[in-house]
Amino acid sequence: MACNSCTTENGGQPKGCKNNGTCGTDSCNKLTVFDWLANMSLPNGEKPFNWVEVRFKNGRKHYYKNTENLTLSIGDVVATQATSGHDIGMVTLTGELVRVQMKRKNIDQEGEEILKIYRKASQKDIDIWSAARDREEPMKVKARQYAIDLKLEMKISDIEFQGDASKATFYYTAEDRVDFRELIKVFAREFKIRVEMKQVGFRQEASRLGGIGSCGRELCCSTWLTDFRSVSTSAARYQQLSLNPQKLAGQCGKLKCCLNYELDTYLDALKDFPKTDIKLQTEKGTAVCQKTDIFKGHMWYAYEGEWMNWHKITTEHANEIIGLNKKNKKAVSLEEYASELLNDTKTEFENVVGQDSLTRFDSPKPNNKRKNRRNNKNKKKPQNAKNNAK
User: Fold this and answer.
1) Which of 205, 204, 183 is nearest to 195 (CA)?
2) Among residues 24, 194, 254, 304, which one has the fewest Cβ atoms lying within 10 Å of its Cβ?
3) 319 and 233: one domain?
């Protein structure tokens, strides 16, 4: 859902609010939050929670204490405390949900490093902030060139100015440790600003920059995902996916986060399946598992030496044969268990509409053959009449 000013121009082209991340309704930003407690009033005598959640560039969020008792609501631009000077951000959450979020992230309300909100941002603060944001993109191009000139194996992925334009944070990614002391001197000399270097992981870089995934939707890490759990190739094996790194890797170059979404469901379904490395002992021979169908609960086995002939049985039958083998008994053959599934292979569909043709609603085409036959008969009749007259 976009803000009210995100309309379209003539011809259907998107117009956009052009607020550059400072949309008043906060619905054009990343990691948006819905305050489902906004319409509920506090009990009598209870004071509202005096902490607020403030969002900065590319989804970076921090929690600040409202010591001045300002009347703040979602979408307000505020000046917040920083290490030196002040920063400019947007309020994304107020009230009791902030208490829940701080508890979930283990943020101490009585800690020593408590950051405060100074005031609501004035027009002068917003102008300085906007001018600093406009400098970020050309600075990033130059910063990358300086890193290449110094032959540093690192990538400058993003630059974020502080709200008062007194400091710039350079986010970079690198495989190994990088000695960027000389690079900081070049940045300070060329850009005339205090420089802070911050290394981020490849997943964090993708979440900051954003993009479109192979599914056609915006990246989960840049829209709603806040924690990055480790993803291993075993998640793809459990889901019987092809171990193709080009398909399993996301834009960050690592395994896709969505491989973990349905992993628990697959693990629950696989509890009823026997291990695929267990061989079935039958009187006809030893059978080895070739394929499994997690959704239907079927398994395919083939006798050793007859690898082209697969026999489909259910997981219950496979566990039954394994139970017999543990008792030093052998099943007769796989064909006895596979024959029970032969009757279920055909599916009969009922015709609920009453007509089988998919083009039943199309207008009937004219039959040109009948017209041609009639025209040919009319042409022949005058000739036969002349012959009879003669």
Assistant:
1) 183
2) 304
3) no
- Do residues 106 and 80 lie in contact, with contact meaning Cβ atoms separated by under 8 Å? no
DSSP conformational letter for 150: T
Residues 162-175 pLDDT 10s: 999 999 999 999 98
Position 216, amino acid: G
pTM above 0.70, yes or no: no
Q: State how far the Cα of 221 lies from the Cα of 206, in Å rounded to an integer.
A: 7
DSSP calls for 24-64: TTS-SSSS----TTTTPPPPTTPPPP-EEEEE-GGG-EEEE
Q: By C-alpha distance, which of 5, 194, 172 is closest to 82?
A: 194
**Residue 98 and residue 120: Cα distance in Å, rounded?**
19
- For residue 200, give the amino acid letter: V
Instruction: Confirm whether 349 is domain-assigned.
Output: no
Q: Grade residue 360 by pLDDT with cuts at 50, 70 and 90.
A: low
Angle at 174 between CA 63 and CA 89, to 5 degrees: 20
Give the phi and the psi of residue 77 in degrees, each rounded to 5. Answer: -95, 125
Q: For residue 256, give the 3-state DSSP assignment.
A: coil
Query: What separation in angstroms does the CA of 365 have from each of 362, 370, 371, 376?
Result: 9, 12, 13, 21
Tell whether the model's pLDDT for residue 20 goes beyond 50.
Answer: no
- Residue where a domain stops, chosen among 102, 121, 140: 121
Look at residue 155 and tell me whether its pLDDT is greater than 50.
yes
Count structural domains, the chain.
4
